[in-house]
Amino acid sequence: MSESTHHHASSVLILRIEGMDCGGCERKVEAALGRLKGIEAVSASSVTGSVKIHPQQNTTPSHEVIERTLNELGYQIAADEEGDEAESSPAPWWRSAKGRLVLVTGGLLALAFVLRLVWPTLGNWPFVAATLAGLVPIAQSAWGSLKMRNPFTIEMLMSIAALGALAINAAAEAAVVVFLFAVGELLEGMAASRARRSISALSDLTPSTARLMENGEVREVSAASLQIGQRVLIRPGDRVPCDGRILAGQSDLDESPVNGESVPRSRAPGDDIFAGTVNLDAALEVEVTRGAEDNTIARVIRLVEEAQAAKAPVARFIDRFAYYYMPAVIGLALLMAVVPPLVSTMAWSESVYRALALLLIACPCALVISTPAAIAAGLSTGARHGLLIKGGAVLEQLGKLRLVALDKTGTLTAGTPRVTDVESWTREQDENDILRLAASLERGSSHPIATAILARAEQLGLSSAEVGEGRALAGRGVTGRVEGRDLSLITPRHLQVLSTLPDERLQRIAALEQAGKSLAVLVEGENPLGFIAVRDEPRDDAHEGLLALSRLGVQAVMLSGDNARTAAAIGGTLGIEAHGELMPEDKAQRIREWQAAGRGPVGKVGDGINDAPALAAAEVGIAMGGGTDVALETADAALLKNRVTGIAELIDLSRATLRNVKTNVALALGLKAIFLVTTALGITGMWIAVMADTGATVLVTLNAMRLLGYRFQGGTVTAPSGSSVPAAGEASR
């Protein structure tokens, strides 16, 4: 099997197809392959230029049968000798089958005009010859579709129109029509190729080679050959060749190619890094944690391609519309050919000519491609910005969200406590002394409060002292001897057993606890010295992300399993409605209640694990995970950049895509309506009809490609057209 074929699963075959560039092509391929014995389902995508074949009971028709069927339709299975590189660097247009047809038909048409001028006695025969020569591949494709019981194709309509024009002695116009059709098909192919390159460019993010460290030596190997557990050296300026974990070295990494995050992040031993990111500062020794077929870039590409197969509801509606539209227009063309001569003085040649022109305008290629082209561009743009959207249906639904429920820990907050307050109750020690002594007691502890205290002391450059006789007090805190003093770090509840505090200090403690903070009191013997308060604080981008949602008219609500007091405190800080003490099933029930009350559609944002019931209950589940398995494989969408602002970016990208779809549908239907009327009235002829059809297809495809340049900026989100809307995320800086 060629390199153009591959498996995502053992029972699914995916083929790369040359020449499949529009919605009509998709339907032809699906109808033809779907009738082959042993095939259960077929899904073709002109945007990716691929067809996915699901066999029956693990029995797939032979590769030769599939190839022969596609060849009869005029398509070829791509056999890229240079693999993916050939796809990203396609051959010049004049070397393609469609390009050669344009050159042949154009040359014959020019020759026919020259012969008419030089040798007038030849009459229309040069044009007849030019028409028939250019019509051969078109008629072959039409005949192949007819044998597959699919008569309603643009090739069939073109063949009928061209032969009909010859029959009514309009040979010159027939030759022009065949040439224009070839040009239109070429332009469609070039536009589709551009869309495919924008998607396949994701695969270029992973370098082709890696520096493998083995037996004390470093040698260059193929990145695709890396195995889990191997070690690689990544030099400054190198692109990371694998998903891995840093063993040695510390450096800033540019992660924008993977998650769209513009600010480099510092990575140290023990941190995970992703394929496709760029090492900026220092050499890193990295252990491979995923094979090439399962690294972050490979999974993103796989998810984007699979998402394009999941048609949006609007796309399914357009497909159904086109299914009935085309036969209806063909029936109208028959009436146009027959009725006018019977009820008026119109000549048969004129009525047939108008009917043939009507046939050419009938093909719904532009209408059918208008939606999937925009959806594919939106999905690809999202992937480049670290926004993974699993299908057109999800992309469409995102733009309709009216309420978003967010988890607290790890979503709106950092997920780890931080020191918020330090107070001393004695003149002998200031706040730094309290923090330093507490950090000394907590040395070596992995408790979240201990981690927060140690991190704050390190940030301030406070050196901790040695601890003697240190031990944990079960459920109360820690104790030990520091600098010759017997110190303990305990909770306020257990402090009351040792000492009585003045009312003002009790009120201070109560106020901090009411604000959702956890306190640890430093005690010497029975004498309280001061306290340290910690809390899982809102993320740096939480306010910005919630403000962006508000500007889009989307309400944000917090759902948390934490105690109600802490949830209310964080909700008050962020200015949103908050609900605490919720089990996973309680979160799902709240979402169902909001949906029943008409507050939906509802989106749910969480980590994808303990929020699974709520993610499933919401219209759209969004996982935040910074590229983890959960973020990529759970929920309907995932934020690789792991930022709250990404939620607004998802919603605004969806709305931009839907606006693009509506524009495309209006263009396709509007041009069809105009030229159907002008053709029926005899104002426009056959060659104008061909230009209108192919031109509309190219126009909607290029309009969809505008989404590839969509970008998010500071307070506004800007489309390539220059139009701005309220903030939907953070710009690249």
Please supply descriptive tags for the structure shown above.
733 residues; alpha+beta; Alpha-Beta Plaits; Calcium-transporting ATPase, cytoplasmic transduction domain A; 5 domains; seven-stranded mixed beta sheet; six-stranded antiparallel beta sheet; 25 helices; disordered N terminus; disordered C terminus
Low-confidence stretches: 1-10, 80-88, 714-733
End-to-end span in angstroms? 46 Å
Rg calc: 33 Å
Counting DSSP E segments of at least 2 residues, the number of strands comes to 30
Overall pLDDT, averaged? 79
The major sheet is characterized as: 7 strands, mixed
Strand order of the largest sheet: 15-27-26-25-16-23-24
- What oligomeric assembly is this protein in? single chain
Roughly what percent helix? Answer: 40-55%
Provide a count of the helices.
25
Class based on secondary structure composition and strand pairing: alpha+beta
Query: What does the overall shape look like?
Result: elongated
Count of folded domains: 5
| Beta-strand percent range | 15-25%
3D architecture notes:
The chain has 733 residues and is α+β, with helices and mostly antiparallel strands. Helices cover 49% and strands 20% of the residues. It has five domains: 5-89, Alpha-Beta Plaits; 100-199 and 304-376 and 661-712, no CATH class; 207-292, Distorted Sandwich (Calcium-transporting ATPase, cytoplasmic transduction domain A), CATH 2.70.150; 401-414 and 539-618, Rossmann fold (3-Layer(aba) Sandwich), CATH 3.40.50; 418-535, Calcium-transporting ATPase, cytoplasmic domain N, CATH 3.40.1110. Mean pLDDT is 79; it is low at 1-10, 80-88 and 714-733.
